[in-house]
Amino acid sequence: MTALLRLATCGSVDDGKSTLIGRLLHDTRQIADDQLEHVRDVSERRGGGALDLALLTDGLRAEREQGITIDVAYRSFITERRRFILADCPGHEQYTRNMVTGASTADATVVLIDARHGVQAQTRRHMAIAELLRVPHVLVAVNKMDAVGWSRERFEEIEAEVGRVAAALGLPDVVCVPVSALHGDNVVEPSAHAAWHEGPPLVTRLEELPIDGADTAGPLRLPVQLVTRPEGEAGGGRRYAGRIARGTVRPGDAVVVLPSGREAVVEAVETLDRELEAAGAPLSVALRLDREVDVARGDVICAAADAPAPARELQATVCWMHERPLHPGARLLVKHGTRTVRAIADAVPERLDLETLGPVPAPDGLHLNDLGHVHLRLAEPVIADPYAECRATGAFVLIDDQSNATLAAGMVLSAG
Predict the structure, then answer these.
(1) Statement: residue 403 has pLDDT above 90
(2) What is the phi/psi pair of residue 247, to 5°?
(3) Could you tell me which of 87, 90, 83, 59 has the C-alpha nearest to residue 75?
(4) How far is Cα 145 from Cα 347, in angstroms, rounded to an integer?
(5) Are the C-beta atoms of residues 146 and 109 closer than 8 Å to each other?
């Protein structure tokens, strides 16, 4: 089966994200004839002479009318070497929260830069989010190279600035690719305009990216979503179902249920229709244990030999997504995996300065679209790993305890 890569695109407003996605879909022949005809008709009604490929992803009426991306548009395409699911993320600062959503599950992200304008504040913000979310691969598409006459000097100037931003953020191996999404140069096929560029076109680079399988390598983490008892089984027979967040599990493995600390041995690993000899992240399975233990939704089944201590405090980085600021002392809900607990923000010591790319004090707390550190004190324990070790068990969401509004996405730095 062709390998799947999850891809997110982001960048500043009007850098050409939707056009790039439309170009990918068009040039890889993923567009049905009737859909292409509809885009052609809309392009003509809007007075444009050329086919507006951005219409293939700007799905909301407000997006088509304003010419911007608001929601995260998901599309898929396939090449001879790889399958892709891509998220076209908004560029406007107001919709940074949507970029976090689109990039949170990405294996790679493509940050677009308008060659005329170079690196912008939103470019730095999106690269910072990619680093915080530990997106394994970051490519930078320097778009609209046709508007600067395919100037090698301009490209190398932007490439150098991107390198400085990446080094300041700690992003490894960021690669820049010169493209023109409007005309299709160096996107799917090589272009004579970019003959001076030594690397392959954008899609070839995406096809060659290794897919990170780190979540299958660590110790077992299985957040329990559901406890079931199959019909017709008397007495025991309970199954503990969930999606494996990290590691692998096999019959005979010793496990511990947290936060209770009760231990057991796995008797069987099951899917809907069969038993497995082994299962790894991110497969959804049901475990049958060798003894009756008290397990509930929100508990985590872990490898007994390498289980984390239940944590009542979290040091974390958050992307604040709400108009109401976060101040020390705020009462919140922390949704971590399948568990939701009450918490207090004990301290908000610093935020990221997008100009210097360094931390600065945050005496006024965090405001909309700020990235910063927060110390959370929890009313009940959670089973968390540092986000750098496991994205699934190191991520959480902050929720307003009165309105249930989503306030922030968080990444655990340390738990204790």
Answers:
(1) yes
(2) 80, -170
(3) 87
(4) 45
(5) no
Element (H, E) at 103: helix 96-103
Q: How many helices (H) and strands (E) does the chain have?
A: 8, 23
Rounded mean pLDDT, 264-283: 92
**Which of 64 and 204 is assigned the larger pLDDT?**
204
Instruction: For residues 285 and 249, give the distance between their C-alpha atoms in angstroms, rounded to a whole number.
Output: 10
- The predicted-structure confidence for 118-164, as pLDDT tens digits, reads as follows 999 888 988 988 888 888 899 999 999 999 999 999 999 999 999 99
Q: How far is CA 264 from the centre of its chain?
A: 34
pLDDT, residue 44, reads 66
The domain of 105 spans 4-211
Q: Is there a single domain that holds both residue 344 and residue 301? A: no
Listed in sequence order, the residues at least 6 apart from 333 whose beta carbon sits closer than 8 Å to its beta carbon are 340, 341, 342, 343, 398, 399, 400, 401, 404
Q: Which residues contact 34 (CB under 8 A, 6 or more apart)?
A: none
Write out the H or E segment, with its range, that includes residue 182. Answer: none
* Number of domains making up the chain: 3
Contact 244, 279 (CB under 8 A): yes
pTM over 0.90: no
Q: Are residues 229 and 174 in the same domain?
A: no
Which of the four pLDDT bands, split at 50, 70 and 90, describes residue 61? Answer: very low
Q: How far apart are CA 198 and CA 246, in angstroms?
A: 38
Q: Strand 284-289 relative to strand 262-270: parallel, antiparallel, unpaired?
A: antiparallel
Q: How far apart are CA 161 and CA 145, in angstroms?
A: 16
Of 306, 326, 349, which residue sits at a domain end?
306
What backbone torsions phi and psi does residue 275 show, to the nearest 5 degrees? -95, 150
β-pair partners for 108: 7, 137
